[in-house]
């Protein structure tokens, strides 16, 4: 049974999509079968893997609409795209924002539509990564309800702490309302780090205190690099785009750390 990991933070531009792609392909490189679910109407993961989001006939919206209509007849590979680097992708595009309105109008089960779908396909994978949208709306809640664990990418800046509190509250509500009792936080991953600045080290200390030692902050962090910014426009992972670069090494080491800390997906 595949382990489902949501990569979530309601703030945009914190490295969710970059982490989803490069942790995903990092896990593939270690011999795992990985599905990446793009759950953002901006379709950045879809485009970052080289697909033209607007031209796709089947996306996560098509699949979720089928779940809403209780049409469970789809095959396990329905709509799933294959990337040359070995990761599978359930793509997204702007249509996902329309779907949110359809979800809201449902009387029953509106938080569980993604879970219903992923439960149908999780036997095919070791890991399913969900690249969340920058919001805590009903679609993001669907990700948190479907997930076993959450990775929170974070910029090491002072104002990140406030946003983190909000996210932790939402996670708490999901658990206390019985929507997903066993939801765990895998850990916090610092991204886009300029480790020469004192602010990085200060924020590290503040966050450690704020988390009270209850939440893992990964030892490995992702440095800032121009190569990391360029890779998505070529539809490649950082491992292919800048094989020996610092971000490539950092995501490789983070993948190892993730594997050593996550409870087994197999
Ligand atoms: N380590 C990094 N160094 C430099 N730029 C990065 C790095 N990680 C992400 N970026 C860039 O920052 C922007 C936001 O990253 P992204 O992963 O799309 O964040 P999110 O999905 O949280 O909105 C993108 O343009 C991305 O290419
Ligand atoms: Mg994104």
Question: What would you say this structure looks like, in words?
Answer:
The protein is an alpha/beta fold and 266 residues long. The protein has a single domain (3-258), classed as 3-Layer(aba) Sandwich (Rossmann fold). It has eleven helices and seven strands. It has helices spanning 16-29, 44-48, 60-68, 95-104, 113-121, 138-146, 160-176, 198-211, 226-230, 238-241, 246-261, and strands spanning 3-7, 34-39, 81-82, 88-90, 127-132, 149-155, 184-191. It has a seven-stranded mixed beta sheet, sandwiched between helices. Strand 3 (81-82) and strand 4 (88-90) form a beta hairpin. Helix 3 packs parallel to helix 4 (95-104). The longest helix has 17 residues, at 160-176. The mean pLDDT is 93. It binds adenosine-5'-diphosphate (ADP) and magnesium ion (MG). The site of adenosine-5'-diphosphate has 18 residues, from helix 1 and helix 9.
């Amino acid at each position: 049974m595949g382990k489902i990991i949501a990569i979530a933070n309601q703030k945009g531009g914190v490295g969710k999509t970059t982490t989803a792609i490069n942790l995903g392909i990092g896990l593939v490189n270690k011999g795992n079968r990985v599905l990446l679910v793009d759950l953002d109407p901006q379709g950045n993961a879809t485009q970052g893997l080289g697909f033209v989001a607007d031209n796709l006939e089947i996306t996560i919206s098509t699949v979720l609409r089928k779940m809403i209509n209780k049409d469970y007849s789809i095959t396990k590979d329905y709509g799933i795209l294959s990337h040359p680097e070995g990761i599978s992708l359930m793509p997204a595009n702007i249509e996902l924002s329309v779907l949110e309105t359809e979800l809201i109008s449902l009387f029953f089960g509106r938080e569980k539509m993604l879970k219903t779908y992923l439960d149908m396909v999780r036997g095919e994978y070791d890991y399913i990564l969900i690249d969340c949208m920058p919001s805590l709306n009903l679609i993001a809640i669907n990700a948190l309800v479907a997930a076993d664990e959450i990775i929170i990418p974070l910029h090491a800046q002072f104002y990140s702490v406030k946003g983190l509190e909000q996210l932790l509250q939402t996670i708490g509500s999901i658990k206390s309302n019985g929507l997903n009792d066993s939801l765990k936080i895998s850990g916090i991953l610092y991204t886009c780090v300029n480790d020469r600045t004192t602010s990085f080290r200060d924020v590290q200390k503040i966050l450690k205190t704020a988390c009270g030692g209850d939440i893992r902050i990964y030892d490995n962090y992702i440095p800032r690099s121009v190569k990391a910014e360029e890779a998505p426009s070529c539809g490649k992972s950082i491992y292919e785009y800048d094989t020996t670069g610092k971000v490539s090494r950092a995501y490789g080491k983070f993948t190892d750390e993730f594997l050593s800390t996550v409870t087994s997906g197999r």
